[in-house]
Amino acid sequence: MKYSIKKGFLMLFLTSCSMLASAKDFIITDYGAKGDGKTNNTKAIQRAIDECASKGGGKVVVPAGRYASYMVMLKSNVNLYLEAGATVEAIADGTKYVSLVLIDQAENVSVTGHGTLFGNGGNFSIKEEAPDRPFIVYVKNSKSILVEGVKLLHSAAWTLRLFGSEHVIVRGVSIYSHANFNNDGIDIDSKDVVITGCIIDSGDDAICLKSDDPKRITENITITNCIASSNCNLIKMGTGSLGGFKNISISNCVLRRATESPFHKWAEKPYHFMTEQITGISGIALEIVDGGVLDQVTISNISMTGVQTPIFMRLGSRKNPTGSFKNVIINNIIATYHSRMSSIISGVPGFNIENVTLRDIVLNSPGGGTREDAERKVPENEKDYPENRIFGWSIPASGLYVRHAKNLIIDNFQVKLATADARPALYLDDVHQLKATNVKVDGEFITGNDVRMINSDRCLVNP
User: Fold this and answer.
1) Is residue 420 part of a domain?
2) Are 171 and 197 in contact (CB under 8 A)?
3) What is the span of the domain harbouring residue 262?
4) Rounded to whole angstroms, what are the CA distances from 408 to 118, 297, 355?
5) Is residue 31 domain-resident?
6) What is the gyration radius of the CA atoms in the chain, in angstroms?
7) Among 213, 257, 289, 365, which residue carries the largest CB count within 10 Å?
8) How far apart are CA 241 and CA 236, in angstroms?
């Protein structure tokens, strides 16, 4: 008798648990979705999301199959879970929508699993500037967001955009996006964001911090343990920099050449001196060109190859009054690059980049710079779009070109040349208060002939 009572309670308990679990799983096929790659499943998926949200939240499950859809909107307390073998594919028939998955003004939302969100980007309009193309995942004005484990494939525009949001974690996400122009990997215009363990291979900037609202700063960002590839910039802050960037930490990342480059044929243009067919523009690009402020940025433990310029810092005046750029530490960097556009730190006349430390930097350069390269005058181009080539396809320094800067520390900075180079290792123009120690070219401490100074003072090199 006691045994049967216990057994009865056990069965009741297990049944209750099973009912509770199933009540939290909303499987899209139960709402009419078909994974045949043809059916428009937008309404079915949205019905599952809406019912999940109306019942207090839970998991909306996408089982194995290929589900065509327009945009679906996730709501608070909903987890969109893609099982292994599941693909949600964007419908590209000319209909305009913001993104395949939109999270807007919601809290406690997640996109997780082992499946794929396919942006179908190659079937959208192929134009350099096409603002109506959809993203794959767009997180807008939301809070407490998790994107984890999923694959994001071939967006029509940017792949994963974080805008005006906070408390966001992006973990273990794989991005491959080479189907269209402007195929950024992850764009961050938010605060309190952690990006970790992601692998990104994109046509445009791989990981890009932006600040498109002058009243809001992109701040408190950690990016770590990622592998990034791009035909443009691999890790970047800007070009949108209306508010600016503050309190940013980037560490332990590998940057490498992209797998393919269908739209950027850098090596085919004349006078580029590229030593590789596929390259990214800059490994690390820090830019304030639309006003705003860049302050308190640390970047460490980065290995990069397949880039044209390892380190690019630009304070410019593209649209608004010039902003400010200060307090940056970059250390433990090893880079192999493939052009004559060496590392660059450049403000504009009257506005200095300030308080920058470069420490423990090893640059493997192709060399090949000529005397003509060493003597060329670099244009200011204050209002140009900020990328390395605005200063010309060669820079008059084999290691580091610095202009309009103040209070710099350089320590253990090494340049290793693949071929002979007629350019000085350091070129300093309008630089004030610089101390450079342990600066070497091919293992030898540089001397006066390896440094060129113009309108500079209180600059000590290997004192």
Assistant:
1) yes
2) yes
3) 198-206+217-463
4) 45, 15, 6
5) no
6) 25
7) 365
8) 11
